[in-house]
């Protein structure tokens, strides 16, 4: 049985959802949520919702306690103690940890950033079939008989035919009164997608830059997971050479070498060739760097790989350039100059955490 | 679900002990429920059903989360009702169930006999279910959002009641009726009766009559204040005088009625828990426990009595005060002679075998509430023995620090925190302020400023009910100000 309280609870969660949505920009730019990511839940700290009251303000109320200590000894106060009439002054003093499913989070993100749903490419997507009970029919198996509708129908008939007696409201359904639930089979395309993350881990990429990459890729992940049932992720790091790593290594490696971006693009090309046939897979390539490539020759090489190899197979190629105190940031300008009108290539500059919000919108705003 | 035969037998046994000790309670019905049901009931303030509101959902969310993380567990839940309903959690072990039963009987005794509960509705179980039905009906009729928003508004001011009101003689009629302006007609000047017409001018000189008439006119034209006396029960005032729709009036009335029902529990928290702990301890240790249960019992009991430096545990303070009172009255440590003795050792070893302790604590549980309890029975010796202190917020380092260990300071602070549940006193002074139908509230300043942002939001809520501008007189940084909300903007006006 559904508990009575569930209604209050879901209403409360609905209010919270609104709260989170209102503050989503703040959450997007902060990394702490990622640390609290479970398998399909994220725990988000939300300030407790309090109804306002006439109450005493500030921390100057004090209280009475028990225990050792001289005058002037600081005491650890455990939480908000009842009875002392204390209330948190700053909002957020009493935080609720709210579990939000990743799916819900993606929905919020989509609503807030007005992201279009992705229309997967290719017609060879695996189609899955699902039965949904949607309608009512006059015939069907007895196990699906809809009692309420059946009696309603019988009642209607009796009223019309004048055999209904309100004093003695006996309703006898005939065969033709019977109503049954029916289902529709809906076909759901189950598209597959792969995201290949590439990141520059050369000496000029500092912790702050990586944090930005981490936060941004968390949101991209969340969104694409919501859009695709089957999503694979691959990680490539590069300085002067590129190698494929796992997620952990991806975010925590720091090398001191130079930067040859083409190495990563070549590797990405190889991975795609080996595992992901473009006809079946929606391919997303994400590259983050500070834009300080080693020499023009390599930039030319990158452009050629992009043009001939990666862009033709990818849904999107997103290049996010973080700002570093060392880099020249030239790479993004080179790409911009060359691929002016290329739809699949999205360039975004992310100078600081605040810019993540805008950048996500740029990357995912096309619905590809 | 009702109790298993085993537990039922134990219940009979413990009820017997409780009666033997002189506890006097309504019939008490135990229900055995699962933890999630207990969390649900606890979120609903102890009742199986309440009107729909997200606040209960929030409570539930928190309770069930902290239960599933193993942070907290509710052991006992008992409703002040006749019969009393109490809940046992199925997953508790047997010793815990016994302890809870003993504890519950003492609560029930307290509910039944403590004076401050005398006016509570003993059929509240039914009443609250009726409230729920009524509100649900309004939801169906007027829409979820509208009703919810209005409940939010009502709950914002649910603390603006007068806990002492039930004990005053109620004027006839439940709510204040708007004043009817019918007195003016009576106000013709007094004329003395004259037998002869020609004497009339002498007996009632026209100048005098004219003067009287002017005087009365002046008096009449002076704005009359309503309410005549400042009222603390602002909810009642609004129910009687605010331009509300019928259903809104009813919802406000529901919130008010429930606030009054729960009010004595807030007024006697320390006593009630102290009393229940005193008796579960007494009954368990003298009658119920067998050898194998002692450790579990002690573990549970000490957990309940635990104190932290920044937290005053009402269970602990209550039980110790009751024990102290019993000891003092057993040994005659009271009265003039004892009070006037100023030798510490003599006082400590004072022993006149009067044996009045038990009798005294029963009397205390009947007549006192927390404020009176602390005022009468907190002694310097007690504060010293229990290492009590006052703490305050130190603005320089942002920490709460121990600021005083003097008896006077401790008692004063404790009384301050308990008086009106540590909430500010707000009165409605005038409902026709500036002769414009504005509501004028006054905060009786006790040395601490109101939390201003919330005060403004609260004014907004009251405005939603009153629908004319609302004003609150208070002190901000030692200056008298009027916080005003006229429906669109907040103002702060300096007052002389």
Write the layout of secondary structure elements.
The complex is a heterodimer of chains A (368) and B (496).
Chain A: H1 5-22, H2 24-28, H3 32-35, E1 41-47, E2 63-66, E3 95-101, H4 102-113, E4 126-137, H5 147-161, E5 180-190, E6 192-200, H6 207-227, E7 230-238, E8 242-245, H7 247-252, H8 261-275, E9 281-289, H9 295-313, E10 316-322, H10 330-338, E11 345-350, H11 356-364
Helix pairs in contact in A: 4-6, 6-11, 8-9
Chain B: H1 5-20, E1 28-33, H2 35-43, H3 54-68, E2 77-79, E3 84-89, H4 94-113, H5 124-142, H6 144-156, H7 200-203, H8 206-221, H9 234-241, H10 246-267, H11 269-288, H12 294-305, H13 314-330, H14 335-340, H15 344-348, H16 357-367, H17 370-377, H18 380-385, E4 388-394, E5 399-404, H19 407-418, E6 425-433, E7 438-444, H20 452-466, E8 470-476, E9 479-485, E10 490-494
Helix pairs in contact in B: 1-4, 2-3, 4-11, 5-6, 5-10, 6-10, 6-20, 9-10, 11-13, 13-16, 17-19
Give a short synopsis of this structure.
The complex is a heterodimer of chains A (368) and B (496). Chain A has 368 residues and is α/β, with parallel strands linked by helices. Chain A has 11 helices and 11 strands.
